[in-house]
Task: structure prediction
Amino acid sequence: MSKLDSFLANAIQSHQKQLSSHLGDRTLYVGASDIAGCPRKAALGKQVPANHDIKTLLRFTRGHVAQSMYAEFFRTGGVNFEEEVEVRHPECPEILCHIDFLFYANRENKRLHVVEMKSTSGIPEEPYSSWVDQLHVQMGLLKLNLADDVEIGGSVLVVDLNAGEYREFNSYKPNALVFDHLIQKGEHILAAMRGECEAKTEASFLCGYCQFRTGCSAHPIGSTAVLPLEIHQAGKAYLELNAQKKTIESQLNVLKDDLLSYTGGVFKSITDEFSIVATTVGESVTVDSKKLKASFPDIYAQVTKPKAGFVKLEIKPLAE
Ligand code: SF4
Result:
């Protein structure tokens, strides 16, 4: 590790601690994001707090950067809001939330709007159910703490800093049924983190980031796992898009052949809408690595280098 690497490893860790200091000791309470996720992950995370790797810490920092950027925009626009508003359950204070942005619509504060901000790489077509659950916990806790005539709304603001895009999923309202269910889940996490019961599992896309995946009953090794609904839907969507990709690729090949039969091997032209260039790439040779290895193993060892592995994903329709 270079000097800069070890310096940054410490600095990024300390910086993250500073940025999240307003959240207090997260091992002592159940927050809205805990409730929105997997109970087992939340409970174990309280019992054995994770040491996040640099990649995860940088992702957290990206979230803070996005939030402060949008706070500046809101300030510049002159809207009335507060950031990181802590709201506790009146009867169970160990259940609480921190609202990213709380907007006040008028002077009497009879209309409030909760915004949960998410910084992502790529914006999904629909908000993830965990984002919406988190928002419901926030709106519900706020409602418990305010007079009945205060109108509460909420939205999830998703920002992709790399792509320079954002999208708001809006028009959410507090829902007593959903909120009660989520609070029961919060109480279950509290009991599990105190060792009073075994935490339930709730598998999702986020399992890939879970440090407690080893030994998790939702991921039995070597058996046919039942997929959570959102993963099943993602698999189906992947299959459908892949089929479209194959159709598009074969259409592209037909058009390419037509165009090449007009242009020949060397051609250049420009229209008012596009340019078109055809070039001929000359013949060349490639190394047959199997032959090289078999016939000249010493040379093969000298001219090869390790290549990082990767995860291969294969989704195929079952035969009808
Ligand atoms: S692997 Fe998935 S289901 Fe298992 S504890 Fe982690 S988040 Fe929960």
